[in-house]
Each structure stands twice: as structure tokens, then as C-alpha cells.
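Is adenosine-5'-diphosphate placement plausible here? Inputs below.
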Amino acid sequence: MRSLAAGTRVTVEAPATSANLGPGFDCFGLALDWRETVELEVLASGVRVDVTGEGSDVLPRDESHLVLRCVTEGLDDLGVRAPGLGLRGHNTIPHGRGLGSSSAAIVAGFVAARALAGVEPDARWVLRHANRVEGHPDNVAAAIHGGFVMAYGHGDDVAVVAGRVHPDLRAAVAVPEVAVETRAARRLLPAVVPHADAAADAGRAALLVHAVAEDPTLLHAGTQDWLHQRYREPAMPDAYALMARLRAAGFAAAISGAGPTVVVLGTERDLVGLEAAEPGTRFRRLGIGRPARAL
Ligand SMILES: Nc1ncnc2c1ncn2[C@@H]1O[C@H](COP(=O)(O)OP(=O)(O)O)[C@@H](O)[C@H]1O
Ligand SMILES: N[C@@H](CCOP(=O)(O)O)C(=O)O
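Reply from A.M.:
I modeled the complex. C-alpha cells:
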């Protein structure tokens, strides 16, 4: 196994992502223009972790840190060893809000592993590893490719197609203070759903691909879901109610990922009335995000 020289370093940036977008459960992912960076350095020995921003009060400072775990797993797979590792995380994506913080961390770790090992970037390799760690491919695929993606496959056999994004597409997110763990939100989903709901979601998912690519006027119809959001309402009643009110007012609102953030899609013009519709709520407007990359 090749050993890396102490002092080898890389900085990686990865975007926040919004998954599902209504009917695309575990398939659709949208990268947002909201990034965080992490610096990795090969040390002569030991582990050093320094974190600022989101999660800095709770994240582990040892080798169990999610980014470090992915760097180590990636290096291992590449037949490379780091005698020690230092990490400096500049975290901006809030955790457990449905904005893909864990996927950003995981993807950053695998991208960093290849850069530290001095091998060329490989999106398929990162997707395979990141999907295995995350357990669902939508956020990691969007973080790897940027823009709008459709991830598909079964288990480890995962692939992704990048969809076209209309140049005027924007997102607005309302991010609650409270976190909901993705794992907990997944446990709320039923094992069986009515055939009519599955069929309706499939139709809306197809429509959403067209709406995102060509026709933002169809975003409201295209973000309608019957398969998962309603089952998660008990874990995020306020977010669910906000989404329902926004939809009733004509906005293309959905629960972002496993929630509780509410994401609204539209052109800049479509999003103008958000604050007037929900005076107590702060919306952050975002463009579409770039792929994760070593800087
Ligand atoms: N930058 C990071 N560094 C280390 N761990 C992280 C980072 N971002 C997220 N995590 C881990 O992922 C968890 C959040 O994952 P999850 O429940 O899937 O929510 P999210 O929707 O934010 O991805 C955090 O509690 C933390 O354990
Ligand atoms: N398809 C997943 C997406 C989870 O996204 P996250 O940003 O909440 O981790 C799900 O809905 O469980």
C-alpha cells in the first residue's frame, strides 16, 4: 500500500442539495448555490479535527467524523494510506434540515480522497461509494454533478442522469430551527402505499422533469406528491402546514429531502410574493448549485 507524504493537502467544496422535490422520492436531487468547504491535510501521525459553523458544538473530533471516515474509506479503496489526517471544516449547511448536509460531507470526503491520492476525479466511483454510506442516492448524486439529477438503480448498482435546468429556475428555502434526522423521517414511511398514489406520483415526476427543463409554469403541478410527505407530517407539523398553505396560494412548494425545510421552486418572478404570503417566515433565495470539487 502506497503511503502519502505528510503535508499533502486539498480543499474541497460541496453544495447543499434538495432531494425529492415532491414526487421524485430517492431519485430527484437539486444542487443549491449554497456551499461549504473542508480542508484535508496528511499528517505524520494521528488525527486532528477543527470545525467551525454548523455542528461545531456536537461533531466528533476523532476518526469517527463523517468526512474523515469517507476519506479513509476512499484512500483504502485506492490502495493508499495516510499516516495521519488533519481536517478543518467550514460548515455552513445546517444539519438535519433536509438540505443534504450529510451528503455534502460524504461527497467531500470521497472527492478529497481521490485528490489526496493524486488520481483523476471519477464521478461514478464517488457516487458508488457515497451512495453506500448515505443509503439513498438523490442528494449525493446532486452534490456530485451539480444542477438537477435523476438517480436510479438498486442498492450498490446506482447511476445518474443529469437533467436540463431552465435558465430562470430558482429555489427559495424556509429552514426551521428544529432538526429532524433523516433516519427518523424514513422510519415514518409505510411499507405499502395505494396503487393510485404511486401512479399519480409517477405521472407528476415525469411532469416535473419537463417543468424543470422547459416550462416553469408547470412546477406547481409537477411538485405534487402523495407518496411520502404526508406520512412525515407528524415529525414536522409546522413545515407541513407551511408547505400546504404555500401550495394553496399557488407556490410550487415541497418538503426538501426528509424535511423539515420547505423548498419553493420557481422563476424569480414566481417567488416575489413569498414574504407577503407568509409574513412570519424567512425565505432564503438560491440559484442552482455547482458540482462538488477539489479547489
Ligand atoms: N460537515 C459535516 N461534518 C461531519 N458530519 C456531518 C456534516 N454534515 C452532516 N454531518 C452528519 O450528518 C448528520 C445529519 O444528517 P441527516 O440526518 O441525513 O440530515 P441532512 O438532511 O442535514 O443530511 C449530522 O447530524 C452529522 O452527524
Ligand atoms: N430521499 C431522501 C432524501 C433525504 O434528504 P436529506 O437532505 O433530508 O438527507 C428521503 O426523503 O429520505
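Short version: The first helix runs from residue 66 to 77.
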